[in-house]
Amino acid sequence: xxxxxxxxxxxxxxxxxxxxxxxxxxxxxxxxxxxxREWTPWxxxxxxxxxxxxxxxxxxxxxxxKITNAGHLPAWHPFYRNVQFDVQAEDExxxxxxxMGIDPREIDTIIMTHxxxxxxxxxxxxxxxxxxxxxxxxxxxxxxxxRLNGYLPHHWDNTxxxxxxxxxxxxxxxxxxxxxxxxxxxxxxxxxxxxxHLSVYVETAPQPTIIAGDVTYTLxxxxxxxxxxxxxxxxxQYDTLARMLETVQMxxxxxxxxxxxxxxSRLETQLGTNALFLA
Length: 279
What we know:
It is built from 9 helices and 13 strands. It has 279 residues and is α/β, with parallel strands linked by helices.
């Protein structure tokens, strides 16, 4: 069975360094983030197309060009004064799929690592697809509490009725909770950055791949076991980072966070022709 992964870069984002790597403990991490006046370099906003024998699967949708429109982001929310986006219409996942010769309507399954806007901004590209979201993530993201936590559920339209996932016992590396979606594709419970965050384990050759969402922003951050400045549960994120590092090392897996500038080259180098770069 051959499974391929294609990265799709939907623009760029830059954040405060203390969001990428948290400073202090518990509430001090957010306070230090809000005090930070520096910026990271521009980081990619990546989503992923899995070419599976049973059909195409998307992991996340990336961001929308609407993100730069006045009023799209809530001006009252302090977090959004600490993030900047550069997303053009041609960067959106739909436009890039068309460039690849793929009609977005061919994709009937979308796995959401979590529902932050840079991963869920272009939900509307797939109005007829089945979206798979962990139940814990959906419950955290919806309604007024979701907006207070930085989600943008008011931008979801009525077609977004996701399939809610409850994790089951699995055995992938040292992960014990997940869900076998299709042959060779397993969802891993990786909470921390978001309460219901999940990652995607893919049995690619010659090495397996873990599409990690925002478990960390970079591979180096995973190796150093550094949590970010916005994780909803620091204890959970430390546990997830420890499990992820041990699993990556145990299985010699290719680790692909969604904002790592090296994720695309790492995929190309380690899996060869499985990777296709879209600028």
